[in-house]
Amino acid sequence: MIDVVHGKTMKDWIEAYPLIKPLVSGVPVTWFNPGIASASEALHDVPLAAAEVHDASARLARFAPFLAEAFPEVASTQGIIESDLVPVDGFMNRLCTLYGIDKTVSMHLKMDSHLPISGSVKARGGIYEVLHHAEYLASTHGMLADGDDYRLLLKPGIRKLFRQYRIVVGSTGNLGMSIGIAGARLGFDTTVHMSDDARQWKKDKLRAHGVNVVEHRGDYGEAVEQGRRQAQLDPACHFIDDENSTTLFLGYAVAGERLKRQLEQKGIQVDARHPLFVYLPCGVGGGPGGISFGLKLAFGDHVHCIFAEPTQSPCMLMGVYTGLHERIAVQDFGISNITAADGLAVGRPSGFVGRAMHRLIDGYYTVPDSELFVALYLMHETQGIQLEPSALAGAPGFSRVLHEREGYRERIGVDAQAWQQATHIVWATGGGMVPAEEYRNYLAIGRNALLRPL
Questions:
Q1: Are 379 and 235 in contact (CB under 8 A)?
Q2: What digits encode the pLDDT tens for the residues 383-417?
């Protein structure tokens, strides 16, 4: 065990923050934020407003004709990039057996794992920021005006303009996929700096789309830093910053109103007596943070957002719990940041998200890789849905809330009846494009892990 961290002994850290001990030991933990506040109060902490989310939604609508023509995957939806919300009763039943729970709850899967074009939740924010940048460049060069059909962006003259500009991002995989595919299709010279733990098939797919892939021996933080350095040396280069970009954040936030419409179409009520619990896998925090912002705008105090992280990469939990945010990393405490959930393998959280959302996120928990693989296997067996390990991080969330002993549900006004009337959403973040051989390996690991106690 490391003896001294940032000038304090480990004993001092544990005395001040008792959860540090199980976190360092890799023991799964759950922490319900005592600082949560009403949405009307806490939304003031976010330096963005509902009007900006509406603006992002309108921008996506303007781009819809372009997307429908540029990407056959969204032609049938008229250029709208959205995922299904599906009930997963069979999966829920198996989870209840696994966790020793008598009464089932109403569980749905939000299938951002199968979003078109890039097959992950990052299609929301990543593609949106590329489109935002393209609109800005085309408009400032007098090639796009209010009221124009955005299919103009496919014309050779505008593509020639975009070829003079570069887009750069650092990624563990999924964000790079969304930005790389969208950027290359528009004509940008696009580079993705990828960490060592990124899957090879993701690198291969990006290269097949004409994207420059730069591989780094280090983790996500190293990839981001190298991308940032490249952009700083080039005035024609736009760096997409997963840690601090408000544009990415707003692209994710559009999900709130869209989910509200989906629930209304299904006749699912959300109010004080029918609360909504949403469990979101968390890496650096931009994706789940933006989605949670949109959900709070859409549902106010009736939605409860809970972040899930691997036991070896609990960066957001540690940052918010200590109040130090991006000033500490899991590696500072000897935590490995090595996990099969590659999209969540982040050692240092987004300070922007941690500070902006610190009174809006109800809780955080960590989950070991073995539990992710078991959930992956059960999802396949019961629902026939293909996911990657990181996408299952939200699956244990309802059991963590049910078994909590800190009075959390009482504090938020959810009694036994409201709990039974609640809707639970597991936000699946990726996996729809995983190659068949790799997916078979995931299933084998999950099948074997199911034979051992969690």
A1: no
A2: 999 999 999 999 999 999 999 988 999 999 999 99
